[in-house]
Amino acid sequence: MPLTAENAAQQIQDRLKDVQRLIHQIDEERRRSEGNINSLTRAQQSNLPPSKLKSLYKSCLQDAVVEEATIRNALEKIQEIRNIRNERRIQARNAGNKEAIRRGALMKMVQISAQTLPLFVSKPGEKVPPLCGAIPAESNYIARVGDNVAALVKGVEDEENWILAEVVQFLQRQNKYDVIDIDEEQKDRHVLSKRKVIPLPLMRANPETDGHALFPKDTIVMALYPQTTCFYKAIIHKLPQSATEDYEVLFEDSSYTNGYAEPLPVAQRYVIAYKPTKKSGSSGGGSSSVSSA
């Protein structure tokens, strides 16, 4: 059943109230836990017996568990809001209500989408799921309608390039994707086989807890060149050190002596496994020149 604008607005408001309530709850829990932490600090300095210290440690640990659960609950509510807004946007597009977006605004949206991508923070012993950081999708995975993907399309003189696109639908019988170029100046539709579509990460990997879910240094990848909607061959130069940092990558560029340009920042969302094209052969995902992208 289609989600009406009124229903969507109400659902978003309800979840915003939940988020506000949870934020206050997190603040209260943090203030309360500070008392236990201060008590533990004083106890450690006073050389209390191990049994007393153990009890204080348990109290602090329980406080952390409760706070973590509340934070995760708030993040789930925020993701629900994102899903509702995305569903409304898709419905509006399907209804023919296409809003023109200027180039600068589009680039800002691409950047914000990467910055606000949910962060996966694993629990002890928890496995990092597919489409988190550098972890690829499973072979039978089908990207959802509205998801962003890298799509291999033909350009000028039949040269193939990887572009940032959005899934319109998956054609089950043909085993193909119907995607649309997110660039407002193009807005081309393409029907492509699954092998020509790469789902982008749905979550960021946390470098502090799940560094193994990031591409190692010197890995050859495809990355979205800043201020464009095209993916190009690059090498990982530096990994993000915190949840808010980007990769630093070296894009292939024949005008440089070593064949690669100076390092540029690219968000986790737009760094994917390297996959060569037919036209480019070993040179990678598209032309090494980015001026026309």
From TrEMBL:
Entry's localization field: Nucleus
Q: Does the keyword Transcription regulation apply?
A: yes
Which key words tag this protein in UniProt?
Answer: Coiled coil, Nucleus, Transcription, Transcription regulation
Q: Where is the SGF29 C-terminal domain?
A: 139-280
Q: Which InterPro entries match?
A: SGF29, SGF29_tudor-like_dom, Tudor_SGF29_rpt1, Tudor_SGF29_rpt2
Record carries keyword Acyltransferase: no
Superkingdom, taxonomy of origin: Eukaryota
UniProt-listed Pfam families = SGF29_Tudor (PF07039)
Major location, coarse class?
nucleus
Q: Name one GO cellular component term.
A: SAGA complex
PANTHER family on file = SAGA-ASSOCIATED FACTOR 29
Q: What is this protein called?
A: SGF29 C-terminal domain-containing protein
Task: Write down the species.
Answer: Glossina pallidipes (Tsetse fly)
